[in-house]
Each structure stands twice: as structure tokens, then as C-alpha cells.
């Protein structure tokens, strides 16, 4: 079964799903933590163009990738070991 892509409505929902996955490789994923923290602490800075948050889960339901975007900036991807997850994102 291919990986499953899921959008998240808020930074809190995103971190609830992706947090443990991101923490497992904290050094590689620190940009996602930093941006998530900024969105959480100062949401008014992102009110005009809402950020987007998403995760990818494998067939066992484990998070295998996370991504976010704060317009006008580019998409930021987590460290990804399972390359099939990239196909689900794009």
C-alpha cells in the first residue's frame, strides 16, 4: 500500500502527529521545529497567507515524513528515510 498524505489544519495538530517522528532526528529537523514554534507563538505574523502542514504515514500508520510551508517561502521537508514518502508529497 502506498504512503498516505495528510494535511493538518493547525500547527498543534501537525506537531501532535509529527512531533515524535521529528524528535527522533531532531538535529536534521530543527528548521521544522523552529518554524512551528514561530507559527505557534506569533500566529498574527502568518495571518495573511496561512501556513500549510502535512505528514505522510506508511501502511502501518507510522509517520515517515513531515512538511510545512509558510508563504512566500518554499516548502520545508523533514529528514526522509523512506523515499516513497516523497512521491506522496509531490
Question: What does this entry look like structurally?
Answer:
- The protein has 90 residues and is an alpha+beta fold.
- It has one domain (4-89).
- The chain is built from three helices and four strands, in the order E-H-H-E-E-E-H.
- It has a four-stranded antiparallel sheet with strand order 1-2-3-4.
- The model has no long low-confidence stretch (mean pLDDT 96).
Q: Domain count, please report it.
A: 1
Query: How many β-strands, per DSSP?
Result: 4
Give the CA-CA distance, first to last residue: 17 Å
Task: Give me the number of helical elements.
Answer: 3
Class inferred from helices and paired strands: alpha+beta
- Summarize the main sheet: 4 strands, antiparallel
Helical fraction equals 25-40%
Overall 3D geometry?
globular
Order of helices and strands: EHHEEEH
Low-confidence sequence ranges: none
Task: Estimate the mean pLDDT confidence.
Answer: 96
User: Strand arrangement, largest sheet?
Assistant: 1-2-3-4
Rg computed from alpha carbons, rounded to a whole number of angstroms: 13 Å
Strand content: 15-25%
